[in-house]
Amino acid sequence: MKSVRKYITTISAFQFIQLLRFATLLLLGVVFAHHYSKQEIGQYEVMLFIAGAVSFFWLSGILQTFLSLAKDEETSSGESERSSHYFNGFVLLVFFSALAVLFLVVFRHQVQTLLNGANQIPYFNWLLAYLFLSSPSNLIEYLFLSKSKPVHIIVYGLVSYGLQFIFLTVPPLLNLPLKYSVFGLIAISALRFIFLLIILGKYSRFTLSFPFLKEHINLAYPLILSSLLSGSGQYIDTAIVTHFFNSEMFAIFRYGAREFPLVIILANSFSLAMIPEFSRLTMAECLMKIKNNSKRLMHILFPITAVFILASNWLFTFFFTESFSLSAKIFNIYLLQIVFRLIFPETILIGKRITKIFLAVSFTEIVVNVALSLFLVRLIGITGIVYGTFLANLFERFVLIAIVKHKLKVNVHEYIPVSLYLAYSVALLLVYYMVDFWIYPLS
Fold first, then answer.
1. Per-residue confidence at 353, pLDDT binned at 50, 70, 90?
2. What is the mean pLDDT of residues 171-195?
3. Rounded to 5 degrees, what angle do the CA atoms 60, 66, 70 make?
């Protein structure tokens, strides 16, 4: 056991739980597609979408800040004692969860009108319970991460998502209505919340620290605003879908609107790991390190992405049904986002502490995203929404490249393997064009 543990790091464990979460959602989608109607699946997805839309930005900001603040305190004798920081992080998450619930209660009619017109928000009361219970429970894996307990992260992930899969799939397998799967979602959320209280009792003192809360909020709010802008693209896409299309098309869109998790995990992990290097290495060394590691990631991820584009139509019709073939086309466009995921101008800017520009760039990207998506959805249908997002994200990355060039006098070839990048990008676009316009054209 010890020989296995030495190969498990907090980074690999954290990557594992993200992949496990994605795999669980994917397998749940497979089961739901074969036992529930697309209208029922659409209702379930709308519920999850609303919960995510009112929480993703503050969750991201608070949890990232939590990792930099949470620590064990030391007594006068030099021994560590349980910190109250974990409990105060929990209090902050509960507070924001309550605000999100209150927002939905107060603005229920406006949200309902924006998303699905005259229809009621599905399972509204259960949505509120899910939002309040599930949001703070995200703290569990971050607490284990801050305590450097990778095995705990893996065990928690296996048990937690294993139970979630069981709780949500037993009802459809027994031919029970969708509401029983929703009950299962609430049940696993409640169990996670209870488990969080248990581990807080083990690792933290239940003492409010207003100075810590103030410091946490002061550090978190810029990240919250940045996350709100940069992370709202998927929610803008989904909101446009609900405005222009019915619940069946919403389900088709949600099943396809997923980025390749391996690309996101490997790229984001590398980007975060490089930031502190700028304080230890010279600028030239950092740029070369980014370039060499980008090259390695490209050799791995571009070929894998091409394989998924080639196989996507078969995968969606095999694991779901023939009626979800349009989801494969949406998925393929999301796979193309690797074209900008594997270049890292933002890493250089953050490493050199040039961060204020990100809010302006993110805001501009949102404007471009909305404009292109609204234009293209009328022109070519639901795939136009995804093309709009892809082009807006590509635009944002090129703007960041220009900022790096202007502010730091750094050319792209210094941190991007340009020839390799262009060769892989063009090859991937050709594969995409062949699959979606020659082999499986829209009828």
1. low
2. 95
3. 165
